[in-house]
Design brief:
Distance between the termini: 74 Å
Structural class: alpha/beta
Largest sheet: 6 strands, mixed
Helix content: 25-40%
Strand order of the largest sheet: 4-15-14-13-5-6
Shape: globular
Strand content: 15-25%
Radius of gyration: 28 Å
Number of strands: 33
């Protein structure tokens, strides 16, 4: 076996992977020839992977793969004609309407080399800064806050700080699900160092359940919480006065406002939504410990006050003198594998390359380096602004790469319509199936993970080589190559790149030049400027800044530890919040809708939605809410819910468009109601992943408006008020085998990949439509009643073989999907019908552990076995839940792989244990009663 090292394609932890091949020469390698495991030598993950990472190879078997350029009509093109069409159209559009009539929209899934060429093309030669990235949707509030405080978009610390800290504070971060490998490092360090874990989140997440202190604050109250903490630190004289005086500015301006909050802790606790005891416990943890680390994620960033909240956190650490010190400070948890690499090359519309802004000296340096007459001279349109301009007809040509904005941006219906109306849309993708790809005038086949080569930068500034190992099929090309072809056909010099190495070398050389001219900037790749191709190919994971080649391979590098920052004065800035710290009043008959990530899925599911093991835990769109809200909105548990933005909300944000004639029509989504009494009574929770590719009613962003943080321009996805109403289904169920997706009357349709095929969850508001669906004169139909639930069964056959199996009822049909799908293609006879009935009666059990396929039923059964064994061996008085849980996990493997399901496993096991205890107590009581009698 021959092995190469690469990086994971998912979150910003940046895990290393080792890929082994049966072909030692790596020639004509296909997925069947390789195996994958975590790279034990990579500093980010040390060999560990999450459930998604372990199934990276499964993600390569896309249902449809794009291999050749083609037009919207489906007509194929060769690359020469496709690149000529794009070049000519962009050139004509700019000639007629100016450079700001075109735009590029990129992705944190791109490699740094792709990002660099895209930014050189747009900002240097198209001379527009209308080039943004989906990183705007996840990281830009943290970026803006760090720029305001430190003078540059730089995360000061590293992962080692999580293992050195005495107190770890996770804010708006369900790290157990979103960054599972990193969370396991946190739990290991917590146990080894006796560190305190504090989780600040309105929701009782899988992460919060494992915290020493969970502050279930009101949505948006994190600003008051941390601003109040700054005041408390000053009140207690716990700030580092010497550090503040020597290395910061603005403390005396900001702290009096903060002390207004800390002056009345009782009132502050009410405003934040926690008890005074919880509030002071948290504040005292910060006061009493020398190493406090605060890490935040989307719960903070995806807020209209995200930048101010992040600066409020940074203010506290500046006051303590923590920035750049071991085990201390602020850390931003990044959502995508190369969000930071994209920011390094200027991927955001608000930056130029190498962390430069739009000052005249910075523009001139870049123009000279790229040998162009000028570069974009002002900030471009951020993501939401860009698609608003697209909807208003101001942008007439757009190139989208590796992202799915029709699903991921708020007010999705508007985005889809804007792209449909745009005169020219180019999309670079690996599959033609995404909602966005279906709207492309020109669809370009991009190389995906496993095929493309380059670099990525993770959350702690570590650059890792992503190495291709599968031979690209058809005419799939790297994105930097596609961009270069178009640039050359537009007559631009400077795009004769031979390979990804030559792109990276130019980028590193630009970094060295910027560092030379602007020495206060921390971003520095000078030590990588003279890499040979062999050295680049062999590049070990390395954390920047890299001033010397001798630093290649360095790790655990902290910046700003000397107290010198990248601001004009060299001092960090305390930033006063502009946002009002008071809470918004929730209109009556509404809930705050919180969108977030599911444990086993990724973004819009284009990469993970077809992997059966990752779909099994949540097969349909669901909305979680407190049981008390069901009657308020006339809903039933398990029923369908229409989720819609408030009408005046839509009008308000429509009015912000410059074209008053452009009206956003109200849109909605639909999900199945699931009761969770740990959800706050004023909130509902829905996954962010669903789209038209998998669900007829599309995704959560159908119901969210486009409000943004005024500083970072990041959309405020979190906690928007929505109205809920029931969707009354006459019949609902599942169909296996043949399926007519355009059948009359379908109002609920969700596609789910199984280990042995595909099934479709379906629903009808009209009973006749449900019975008529796929019914023929030759269909075999009958009714089976299970526990009072009538189940209407229909079998369609062809040449005696079962081709379609429809199960409908008036309530949700719950069966073992993979086992039912196994009947498709078998002879339809009495024996099959008997087996079918047996399988239906056996029911289904929800999946808990995606790594091992362990269900609730398996955990419950094994916990009962452990309970009985302990009772028989040691008696009821001496039984141990922890021992039983450990034995169950050891036997079944659940929670012992990536660890992201640990809290769910424990919750299921605890319920089974409590049930067993209750039954034992009842038996004991009966025995006593009989003895007394």
């Amino acid at each position: 076996m021959s092995t190469i090292q690469s990086s994971c394609a998912y979150c910003g932890v940046g895990c290393g992977v080792s890929v082994s091949s049966t072909k030692a020469d790596w020639v004509d390698v296909d997925v069947a020839d390789v195996s994958l495991m975590g790279d034990s030598n990579h500093p980010a993950n040390q060999g560990h992977l999450c459930a998604k990472g372990e199934r990276l190879l499964d993600s390569l078997a896309q249902p449809n793969v794009l291999r050749y350029p083609k037009l919207r009509s489906g007509k194929p093109l060769d690359w020469d004609n496709a690149s000529t069409l794009i070049a000519d159209t962009f050139a004509q559009t700019i000639a007629e309407h100016g450079p700001d009539s075109v735009a590029l929209y990129l992705s944190g899934q791109l490699l740094t080399e792709d990002y660099y060429v895209a930014n050189k093309f747009a900002k240097g030669f198209l001379q527009t800064a209308n080039i943004d990235t989906n990183s705007r949707l996840c990281m830009s509030s943290a970026v803006s806050a760090m720029q305001r405080a430190f003078g540059e978009d730089v995360v000061p610390g590293c992962y080692d700080d999580l293992e050195q800290a005495e107190v770890i504070v996770l804010v708006g971060a369900n790290t157990a699900w979103t960054h599972p490998v990193l969370f396991q490092r946190i739990l290991t360090a917590k146990k080894a160092n006796n560190a305190h874990l504090v989780v600040i989140d309105p929701l009782s997440t899988a992460t919060a359940k494992q915290a020493d202190l969970h502050l279930a604050i009101k949505p948006g109250a994190d600003l008051a919480l941390f601003h109040g903490l700054l005041g408390y630190l000053a009140d207690q004289n716990s700030v580092d006065h010497a550090y503040i005086a020597a290395h910061t500015e603005g403390f005396d301006t900001v702290v009096p406002q903060a002390q207004q909050l800390s002056a009345n802790l009782t009132q502050l606790a009410i405003e934040v939504g926690v008890s005074v005891t919880q509030l002071t416990d948290f504040y005292q943890l910060v006061v009493n410990n020398n190493k406090v680390l605060t890490a935040s994620c989307q719960g903070v960033n995806q807020s209209t006050i995200g930048t101010d909240v992040t600066n409020a956190m940074i203010n506290c650490h500046l006051a303590l003198g923590h920035i750049g010190q071991t085990g201390c400070g602020f850390f931003s948890l990044t959502g995508q594998p190369n969000a930071m690499g994209g920011r390094e090359v200027g991927g955001l519309a608000t930056q130029l390359a190498c962390h430069m802004g739009f000052s005249q000296p910075e523009q001139q340096l870049l123009a000279d380096f790229w040998q162009t007459d000028r570069v974009a001279d002002q900030k471009g349109l951020a993501a939401v602004e860009m698609f608003d301009a697209l909807a208003e007809g101001k942008i007439k040509a757009i190139w989208i790469m590796g992202t799915n904005p029709v699903v991921s941006l708020p007010n999705s219906e508007k985005i889809a319509q804007a792209l449909a109306d745009c005169p020219f849309v180019v999309v670079s993708e690996i599959s033609p199936d995404s909602d966005t790809a279906k709207l492309a005038d020109v669809l370009l086949p991009a190389q995906g993970w496993s095929e493309k080569c380059g670099t990525v930068t993770n959350s702690e500034r570590t650059i890792t080589r992503q190495r291709g190992f599968i031979t690209a099929k058809g005419q799939a090309k790297p994105d930097w190559w596609a961009l270069s072809q178009v640039a050359k056909k537009m007559g631009f010099d400077g795009f004769n790149f031979d390979d990804n190495v030559s792109v990276f070398s130019e980028f590193a050389a630009l970094s060295a030049k910027v560092k030379q001219v602007f020495p206060t900037k921390m971003f520095d790749l000078t030590g990588l400027t003279d890499l040979s191709k062999a050295q680049y190919d062999a590049l070990a994971p390395t954390q920047w800044p890299i001033a010397l080649s001798a630093q290649i391979g360095q790790q655990n590098v902290r910046v700003f530890s000397d107290g010198v920052f990248a601001t004009a004065t060299g001092k960090a800035q305390f930033v006063a919040p502009a946002a009002n710290v008071s809470q918004q009043l929730l209109p009556s008959n509404t809930l705050l809708l919180n969108s977030g990530r599911s444990r086993d899925q990724w973004h819009t599911m284009t990469r993970t939605g077809h992997i059966a093991s990752l779909r099994a835990s949540i097969p349909e769109p669901v909305v979680l809410m407190h049981s008390s809200q069901l009657s308020t909105f006339s809903l039933t548990e398990g029923g369908l819910v229409r989720i819609e933005a408030i009408q005046n909300q839509i009008k308000q944000y429509s009015a912000e468009l410059t074209n008053p004639d452009f009206i956003i029509q109200p849109s909605f989504t639909v999900a199945r109601a699931v009761v969770d009494d740990e959800i706050p009574t004023n909130m509902a929770l829905m996954s962010m992943h669903w789209s038209a590719q998998f669900s007829l009613t599309k995704g959560v962003n159908q119901a969210l408006d486009a409000r943004v943080d005024p500083i970072s321009k990041q959309p405020g996805f979190k906690c928007q008020p929505v109205t809920l109403s029931p969707v009354e289904l006459a019949l609902q169920g599942v169909v296996f085998g043949q399926h007519d997706s355009s059948a009359h009357g379908l109002c609920w349709q969700v596609t789910q990949t199984l280990e042995n095929g595909v099934c479709h969850h379906i629903g009808f508001t009209d009973i006749d439509d449900g019975f008529a669906y796929q019914a023929t004169a030759h269909s075999l139909k009958w009714t089976l009643t299970i526990d009072g639930q009538p189940l209407y069964i229909q079998c369609n056959m062809e040449k005696g073989l079962l081709k379609a199996l429809k199960l409908l009822s008036d309530t949700k049909v719950d069966v073992a999907l993979t086992q039912m799908n196994a009947f498709i293609g078998k002879p339809l006879d009495n024996q099959l019908i008997k087996q079918l009935h047996q399988q239906i009666k056996a029911g289904n059990s929800p999946l808990v552990c995606a790594c091992t396929g362990v269900t609730e039923a398996k955990i419950s059964a094994e916990m009962n076995n452990q309970f009985n064994d302990q009772v028989m061996s040691d008696g009821v008085a001496n039984i141990s839940f922890e021992q039983a849980l450990d034995s169950t996990q050891s036997l079944l493997g659940c929670g012992r792989h990536c660890g992201s399901c640990n809290s769910e496993v424990k919750q299921c096991a605890k319920q089974s244990w409590q049930d067993a205890l209750s039954y034992t107590e009842i038996e004991h009581q009966h025995a006593v009663e009989e003895e007394v009698a």
